Amino acid sequence: MAAVATQPLVDVRADFPVLQRTFDGKPVVFLDSAATAQKPVQVIDAMSAYYRTSNSNVHRGVYALAREATDLFEGARKRVAAFAGADPATTIFTGNASGAINLVAYSWGRTNLGPGDVVVVTHMEHHSNIVPWQLVCAERGARLRYLSTSETGELSLDELDEVLDGGSVKLVAVAHVSNVLGTLNPVEEIAARARTAGAVTLVDGAQAMPQMPVDIDRLGADFYAWTAHKALGPTGIGVLHGRRELLETMPPFIAGGHMISRVDLESSSWNELPWKFEAGTSPIAEAVGLGAAVDYLRAVGMDRVRAHERELTAYALERLAEVDDIRIFGPLDAERRGGVVSFAIDGIHAHDIAEICDREAVCIRAGHHCAQPLMRTLGVAATARASFHVYNSRDDVDALVSALQAARKVFEL
Amino acid sequence: MDALYRDYILEHYKNPRNFGELEPHDLDFHDHNPLCGDELGVHIVVEDGKVADLRFHGQGCAISQAAASITSEELIGMPVAEVERLGADWVIDQLGIDISPTRRKCALLSLKVMRGATTGDASWPD
User: Which domains are assigned to chain A?
Assistant: First the structure.
């Protein structure tokens, strides 16, 4: 697999219409898949076909069109669950990864957290895996503790053990892959240690599920959250996989239509899993699109996707190091990170780097990446970030490095 | 010459005027751009209803730092009542470059903190 990143994977690039665009005559170089990935025509067509031929509300209609829409929707759930190594009944569709984490924070957190209890998060979390815990901890009188990140952007299992030894930890919430550092965290080991200490684990897999094989069952985490739009799917739909015993005892989060079994004037009883947690009309076309996205990824093969990301990341780490005055954050070994590389160049602010990259149609992200606590740990206000998916190649990395050299020239460095 | 990163923009970015702290000061304010996390604060000394002296502090991109530096030279000596009436166009004119919508808040952060200090109104300038 060593040479796989020299070309985009099996010439998948032609499947992505946005990548055919040019800006001022320059072909777009899209290096911001960690923010949102581009969509293959297979996903776009599946959603369009759903609206053109099968649109109907799901679950309640007795007519053939409604049955067809329901089959498409629930069929997508089955394929998404299989893709993740999970059970369809414990695979809940949410609005996005934040929606999935909020579901756990409010439904599980309000029932299971109390004064003196501890929720553990890490300094490298996205705001979406910090702020819901801040709110529910404040509401329940529980305490939020942070695990630190090392200079190479990694967590310490010894520190985790020390915190777990305190005995009050009820939940550990951790990113599978950091959206800034790229760090691939040992979530299987973290979940095992948390379980031994009597704590449940929530893994934020928004950056991991799109780019590596993930088997929820083997991973052993109690909750796993991710989102479609970073996995070549549409916006507007996320996924929560949960352990059945926990989901069954948890109260609904959002209340409304479809999540009930029976409604009386004073109280109601709940629908079975997963629908108990899916109030209101679901994102049906989005589920169909996500189903097409996981079909696409499975056809490519997640082992190959991961190999491609690793090779491309290794190449990016090597090429970026050629730029003077650059600081690259996170693990320097591509084995221990996902396809995300954050960096800073002394003397040029990240926004200015991104502005000058844009002149070459190179799309990178600049800012705090919704990880302000991590930015403070790194001692920067902002970083520039390049991230990859199946459609990127070494040429894209070369274009980035040329743009960075141009930025240094503009800034007379 | 670069249309955005002109010589004087880069010069102000690399050597910002009136940056640091002022102790004691009469007015101060600190704010950030939530989009990028850039931060800027200001200390102002007021004498006879005028900005007698000021210092900006914080970190940001070339546009936000140059905007603070360039406008600081105009703001010193200006009646406080006049500062309160300044709008976005004034800053853009002072910068002398075209500012795209995505960089507008970079350019306006320094006026935002100035108005926060003088009027208590921390909304983004129009």
Answer: 4-39+302-408 (3.90.1150.10), 45-298 (3.40.640.10)
